[in-house]
Structures are given as structure tokens and as C-alpha cells.
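Researcher: I'd like a structural prediction for the single chain below. Treat it as a standalone chain; there are no partners to consider.
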Amino acid sequence: MLSIFDGLRDVTMASICLRMVLAVVCGGIIGLEREYKRRPAGFRTHILICLGAAMTTLTSQYLYLYMHYYTDMARLGAQVVAGIGFIGAGCIIFTRRRRVKGLTTAAGLWAAAVIGLCLGGGFFEGGIFATLLILAAEMFFSKLEYRVLDNAPEVNLYMEYTNKDCLENVLKLFRELNLKVLNMEITRSTETEKHNACALFTLQLNKKCGVERVLAGVHATQGVISVEEL
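Model: Treating it as a single chain, here is the predicted structure.
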């Protein structure tokens, strides 16, 4: 533990102010990155969650140390860890194209709540270091994730097309590119008046054919309205 924080671990006015300010700063740092990427839970949401979690821990300490309510001090904090799932669930969206969005934001909200519990309990080192690691994961590790996805052996494609002949031409293209169709699902889209047919492919790629080449080939096929990677 860092000795610089030793005088602030007791519940004093200076300690309370520092813990609350750190909760606002750490939650705001995580929220800024989400706000920059235009995610549903951004700057203010992360601040409120982190600050609320810090106040929960401070309240538990106050009730135990000053009000002499001899109960489990971790009980309120445990409810924060469990209850934050309701807010996180509201950020997760399952689109009509069977794509899940918002998982990183939901995980960030949960982590911000835990950081708030750390700071509220006086564990300054853990809260600050965790904030830096979360920020690194969201800003820098994402580039590594994208690089791994670019070299992934499998890919999911969503395609909207007009007729059966178009689907047969796309399957013919997959055979010409030496791609293996691991799974294929065909549905109907109801969001347009023409009710275009939709297909979801799971393809096994090879070293000679990347995702961009497949997307370009499918998009160039006559009758294909749109195609994108999921």
C-alpha cells in the first residue's frame, strides 16, 4: 500500500471529500471514452454510478463506525454489484440482424460501480489503477481485438437479396472462392414494402481470401441489396 494515502483511510471530512472526488474523476474518465464513441451510457452515467457506489460504501462505514449498527458492512456494497446488472442490461441490444451491441458498455458500468466501491472504502490504489487498466482496455486493446478479427478463420455475413437466383449465384461465388459454408439461415425482412429476403451465412475463410474480398464479391453479385459482416 502507498503510504501517501495512510492518513486518508479513516472516515474524516477530508477523506470523504477525496473519495467522492476520485469517484467522479475515475467514473468520468471511463465515461468520456464511451461518450466519444457515442455509446448509450456515457460521461454522466458513469460518474453517477461510480459516485453512488462510493457513497454506498461510505454509508456502510458510517453506520458501523459512528451509528454503531453492528451489521455486515459489505452488505450494501453487495447489493450494488448485483443491482448494477439492471442498468447494464438496458445498454445491451440484440438487433434484427442478430448482432449483440452494448456488452462493453454494460461491462464498463459494472466496473465503474466496483471502482466506486473501492474508492468509497479507501482502497485508493486499487480504484485508480483499475481505472487506468479499464481505459487502456477500451482505447488500446480494442485495436488488438480488431486485428484478431481481421485474421479470424470464420466470419458471419448478413445479406439482403431480391430473388432465389441471386442466392444461388452467391453460393456459387463461395464455391469459386473455396469457402466452406458452415451454417446458413434464410428469413424474411418486414421493414420494407418489398419484403426482401435475408440470409445469414457462417463462412470458413482461407488464407488466400479475406473478409474484404468476400464482401466485395457478394456486393457485386446481381440482386444483392446489401451485405455486411456481423
